[in-house]
From TrEMBL:
Lineage summary: Eukaryota, Metazoa, Spiralia, Lophotrochozoa, Annelida
Region (Disordered): 20-71
Biased composition (Acidic residues): 22-33
Signal peptide: 1-19
Superkingdom of this protein's organism: Eukaryota
The name this protein goes by in its record: Putative anti-platelet-like protein
Keyword Metal-binding set for record: no
């Protein structure tokens, strides 16, 4: 009977320990897809015009399918330089470009007003750096 009580106790304790381990692992681990940017900053949108020198992060929601991330910079090896010099031109270029890979990330160097786009289908977010003079724009799938 002592053995029976011990086995019953283990049946209760083991699932509780496993559940606690799963919660601990889920809480510490950051689950970010390689194809998705890290979500530690709030997205923003902007109507366009000249490239902003100091843009605020404003939550998206005005029907625009773009969000921006101030200070985000991917290495040049993941980008292609364009000849565009304004946010509107850059966004239009990205939307109208039918080449492969699909354009979904724009990176703007605020020092030179230069627009870059992703050069690969997938971006390696582990190589992301924080640089104050850069803004990234991300194109999202939005209903038209």
């Amino acid at each position: 009977s002592l053995l029976f009580l011990l086995l019953c106790s283990l049946l209760i304790v083991i699932p509780a320990i496993r559940a606690q381990e799963e919660e601990t692992e889920g809480g510490e681990e950051e689950t970010t897809d390689e194809g998705s940017p890290p979500g530690d900053e709030s997205p923003s949108t902007d109507g366009g015009g000249d490239l902003p020198a100091n843009e605020e992060n404003i939550p998206a929601g005005n029907g625009d399918c773009w969000s921006s991330r101030n200070g985000w910079k991917l290495p040049d090896s993941q980008l292609l330089k364009t000849d565009k010099t304004s946010v509107d031109e850059c966004k239009k270029f990205c939307i109208e470009t039918a080449s492969s890979p699909a354009c979904y990330i724009l990176q703007i160097d605020l020092n030179s007003n230069t627009c870059y786009r992703n050069s690969k289908d997938e971006v390696t977010w582990d190589s992301l750096q924080m640089e104050p003079k850069f803004v990234q724009w991300h194109l999202h799938a939005c209903p038209q």
